[in-house]
């Protein structure tokens, strides 16, 4: 039985990435069970050339960003990552180096986040390169963090800095200088805030993927509350600050941050900071009673009006 | 907070499909645990316009075939399906009716196979329509069926009939008449053989997705054995028989059957037939000692030579 090029590639590039659950990538499916007292937490995201990444982005970074976008969703649920299933579709003439770089990126983040490949599917396409990853994590029974627990008077916190990735995209478009390369790096390789334990501290958590305003809006809708954000309190990197205040709206609505947004009682701030360890945490506003609404206020308390509230695919 | 068109679509078409595990499709990930004494069985497949389906295939059938291809992988592991995660990418100008038809197809097979939507991701694309499904099933601890248990002198069985879908593709290309529409129906809507309980009976199981010869080859490689198949014993539908013997090679190497191929001791045939219930089962050959090799024999015992051994994407 001759082995097809597809299965040769699986053996060469992907078997070394496979965990025991993958059964050597030689069976129809993976077999896995969460540890006793734990539940599975499952999420999926896709990346398409020309939509989620640029045609000349290095493929090892594309692979890592794909994993990291999903890892950020697990982080928002308070789940510890375990493994993933991968699909990709590429043109038939894709050079061998592309597969090697894909595997190299996956291997780097498997080591970084202690996850392994459970299985997948590859295909040819006449269209743009596309990839999906289904991430599998675990949380203690009943302890997964949700979006629907925010309460009036909760303080609103975010990790890290906001708006770098969208400014990195502007830099790629040539509309903004990025002399240090910091903004570009944040666009290519986000840092999902995995393995922070907010159970018993946070009321609601979401990861910021579609823009701070829109994602905070999801918490407001799920929790039946409103939110006020102080624009000046939103943490900026030095590079984002250097870009200037005219980028305020893209920073708050542009997305691709993969930071966590957390609501918790004011008094829980110290515990929350302790749970964050070395990850920076900033208080940016407050949850209010009322229908779902996100108000961004300037330093005078006046509400800012934005053209866009965040990323929509349609 | 205005709701984006993307989230309006999620609410309209996909929330009605969501199980409790999906948390109303309003959180970052799904939460689910297998029943006590069970393991999770996980698989993913993609379908791309122009590769896995034709541009004018009805989208409700595309949705169902996507689920069924994955359900067939679970069936080959002896796993009971539970739920799925879905991704799709479509052009921005996709009409509302497309989403409605997608949801209708998913709903039909959710009812047929008693599964529910756990979560997903949608995106726009400038390329062909693409979809993936990650299927989640369960098997009793340690009871998942594998490809690596075939032993010399096992009989080889297949369910249903072989080769209809690839002839249905020839019909779509205009190279073959399909007066009854049977071949076309088999291409559009396979019947995965879920919920057959071969545990303790079968030595090895695989589903036939890339062609009988290639998929039997996977069992041979995983098990360290050879296989002999009697071409005349491979079960044909009336429509495939009517197409004529010149289609022998495509039938055995073309794929998209989503039938199960099972190896088991000769003496287990009766138990296997009983486990199949109403699903037809045919004995097509025998496992032999020796290196991985699939030999297809004609009625005189002479080995047939094929140009292709099965579907490869690259």
Describe, in plain words, how this protein is organized in 3D.
Two copies of one chain form a homodimer. Chain A is of the alpha+beta class and 314 residues long. Chain A has nine helices and eleven strands. Chain A has helices spanning 5-14, 59-76, 96-113, 164-173, 182-188, 212-223, 238-243, 248-253, 269-276, and strands spanning 30-32, 38-48, 80-90, 116-124, 130-140, 155-159, 204-208, 226-230, 259-264, 281-288, 293-297. In chain A, β3 (80-90), α3 and β4 (116-124) form a beta-alpha-beta unit. The radius of gyration of chain A is 20 Å and the shape is globular. The N and C termini of chain A lie far apart (47 Å). The model of chain A has no long low-confidence stretch (mean pLDDT 95). At the A-B interface, α1, β1, β2, α2 and β3 of A face α1, β1, β2, α2 and β3 of B.
Helix and strand topology:
Two copies of one chain form a homodimer.
Chain A: H1 5-14, E1 30-32, E2 38-48, H2 59-76, E3 80-90, H3 96-113, E4 116-124, E5 130-140, E6 155-159, H4 164-173, H5 182-188, E7 204-208, H6 212-223, E8 226-230, H7 238-243, H8 248-253, E9 259-264, H9 269-276, E10 281-288, E11 293-297
Parallel strand pairs in A: 3-4, 8-11
Antiparallel strand pairs in A: 2-5, 3-5, 6-9, 6-10, 7-9, 8-10
């Amino acid at each position: 039985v001759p082995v097809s090029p597809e299965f040769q590639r699986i053996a060469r590039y992907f078997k070394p990435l496979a965990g025991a659950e993958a059964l050597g990538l030689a069976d129809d499916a993976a077999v896995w069970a969460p540890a006793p007292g734990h539940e599975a937490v499952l999420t999926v995201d896709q990346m398409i050339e020309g939509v989620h990444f640029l045609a000349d982005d290095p493929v090892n970074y594309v692979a890592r960003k794909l994993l990291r976008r999903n890892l950020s969703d697990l982080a928002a649920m308070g789940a510890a990552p375990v493994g993933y299933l991968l699909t990709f579709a590429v043109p038939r003439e894709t050079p061998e180096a592309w597969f090697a770089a894909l595997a190299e990126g996956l291997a780097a983040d498997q080591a970084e986040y202690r996850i392994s490949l459970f299985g997948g599917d590859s295909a040819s396409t006449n269209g743009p390169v596309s990839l999906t990853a289904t991430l599998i994590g675990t949380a203690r029974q009943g302890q997964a963090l949700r979006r629907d627990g925010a309460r009036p008077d909760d303080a609103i916190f975010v990790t890290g800095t906001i708006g770098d990735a969208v400014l990195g995209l502007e830099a790629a478009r040539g509309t903004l200088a990025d002399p240090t390369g910091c903004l570009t790096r944040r666009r290519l390789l986000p840092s999902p805030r995995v393995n922070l334990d907010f159970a018993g501290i946070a009321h609601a958590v979401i990861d910021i993927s579609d823009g701070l305003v829109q994602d905070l809006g999801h918490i407001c809708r799920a929790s039946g509350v409103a939110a006020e954000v102080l624009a000046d309190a939103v943490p900026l990197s030095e590079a984002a600050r250097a870009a200037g205040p005219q980028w305020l709206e893209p920073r708050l609505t542009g997305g691709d941050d993969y930071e966590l947004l957390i609501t918790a009682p004011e008094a829980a701030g110290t515990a929350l900071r302790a749970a964050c360890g070395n990850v920076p945490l900033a208080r940016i506003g407050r949850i209010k009673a009322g229908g779902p609404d996100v108000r961004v206020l300037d330093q005078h308390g006046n509400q800012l009006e934005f053209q866009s509230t965040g990323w929509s695919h349609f």
